[in-house]
């Protein structure tokens, strides 16, 4: 019996030593320690043995059982540890790899342009102000020396808002230019004033490659004692140099706007042909960028600023054309079609 137990133990331990997987441990346990195992059968059969032998064999059988159980649990622990090492090895990551890029949005090219233009004027001492897009006729036209019958109204196809007040004020509209903000600033501040006024403007027009019913402008306005046309030219030259480059030629010519006297238009040398003439500049070599002039005395007076004491210059330009010129975009509608394949390029 003792020999039988010894052999059983040796066999069991040998098999246990060869096991490499946790699952097989379960099978081994059933085979050597389970209810139907040889050891269990021996233990049960002890009762039938003579007393002396029962003592000896019983003690030995219990020792074998305890040995097997202890070795099993050691083996199980060793296998589990090995498994952890393998898993850690498999899942190891290279912490020096760059992270996966997150798809983040960015500013719309028009917004980027507005920020850039505002930054240039801010560095020249101008403050950025904003105002309402739904505007009184008064600020969009009347206060800017454009009375009701003025032909300049026809050039700005106006979207009227169907709303009239009982206090005699004219109806409201969607502002046709950001110059409406100049009319607001002039009556709410005292000189010295230096502001730029970016924003959306609206014209009642069909869309095509160069027109949309909504687009963007930025106006500028400076009021102080002794301001002259030289200040106007100095500021606008500086803007053109910074935005279009040091070498870009700039031209001023006379133009008419009801709210300035004298009025000018500023053009830059064509960005495509450099002045020799092409389709973009209509063979003139020049591209008009903005309107400007010395603020009309009537405009200052209406706002409560004495034109005998103060003088002022003003300017206004379209924003959308700037990135179109810079990047060679030939259809303004691309800015407003929400196509991220286009927008993500900027
Ligand atoms: N408001 C004009 C337009 O939309 C542009 C303009 C011209 C603005 C001359 C000005 C200016 O401030 O002085 O066409």
Q: DSSP strand (E) fraction? A: 15-25%
- Give the names of the bound compounds: 3,4-dihydroxyphenylalanine
Please report the number of helical segments: 12
Integer average pLDDT? 91
* Spatial strand arrangement across the major sheet: 1-5-6-10-9-8-7
Oligomerization state of this entry? Answer: single chain
Largest sheet: 7 strands, mixed
CATH class of the largest domain: Alpha Beta
The CATH level-2 architecture of the largest domain is identified as 2-Layer Sandwich
Shape label: rod-shaped
The ordered string of helix (H) and strand (E) elements is HHHHHEEHHEEHEEHEEEHEHH
Give the CATH H-level superfamily of the largest domain.
Bira Bifunctional Protein, Domain 2
Low-confidence stretches: none
Q: What portion of residues is helical? A: 40-55%
CATH fold call of the largest domain? BirA Bifunctional Protein, domain 2
Helical/strand content category: alpha+beta
Give the tally of structural domains: 2
What is the distance, rounded to the nearest whole angstrom, between the alpha carbons of the first and last residues? 90 Å
Measured on Cα atoms, how large is the radius of gyration? 44 Å
Number of strands: 10
């Amino acid at each position: 019996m003792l020999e039988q137990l010894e052999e059983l133990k040796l066999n069991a331990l040998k098999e246990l030593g060869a096991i490499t997987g946790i699952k097989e441990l379960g099978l081994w346990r059933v085979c050597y320690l389970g209810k139907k195992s040889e050891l269990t059968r021996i233990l049960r059969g002890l009762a039938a043995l003579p007393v002396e032998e029962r003592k000896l064999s019983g003690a030995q059988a219990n020792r074998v059982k305890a040995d097997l159980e202890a070795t099993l649990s050691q083996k199980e622990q060793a296998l589990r540890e090995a498994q952890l090492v393998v898993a850690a090895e498999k899942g190891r990551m290279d912490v020096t790899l760059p992270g996966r890029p997150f798809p983040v949005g960015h500013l719309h090219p028009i917004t980027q342009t507005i920020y850039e233009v505002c930054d240039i004027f801010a560095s020249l001492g101008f403050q950025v102000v904003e105002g309402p897009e739904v505007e009184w006729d008064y600020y969009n036209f009347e206060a800017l020396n454009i009375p009701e019958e003025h032909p300049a109204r026809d050039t700005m196809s106006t979207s009227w808002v169907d709303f009239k007040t009982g206090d005699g004020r004219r109806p409201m509209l969607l502002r046709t230019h950001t110059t409406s903000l100049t009319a607001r600033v002039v009556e709410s501040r005292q000189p010295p004033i230096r502001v730029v006024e970016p924003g959306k403007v609206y014209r009642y027009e069909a869309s095509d490659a160069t027109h949309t019913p909504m687009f963007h402008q930025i106006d500028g306005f400076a009021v102080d004692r002794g301001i002259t046309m030289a200040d106007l030219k100095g500021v606008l030259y500086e803007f053109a140099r910074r935005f279009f480059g040091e070498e870009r030629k700039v031209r001023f010519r006379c133009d008419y706007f009801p709210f300035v006297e004298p009025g000018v238009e500023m053009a830059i040398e064509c960005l495509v042909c450099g002045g020799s003439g092409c389709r973009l500049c209509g063979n003139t070599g020049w591209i008009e960028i903005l309107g400007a002039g010395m603020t009309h005395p009537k405009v200052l007076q209406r706002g409560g600023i004495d034109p005998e004491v103060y003088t002022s210059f003003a300017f206004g330009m379209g924003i959308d054309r700037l990135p179109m010129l810079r990047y060679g975009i030939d259809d303004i509608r691309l800015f407003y079609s929400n196509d991220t394949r286009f927008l993500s390029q900027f």
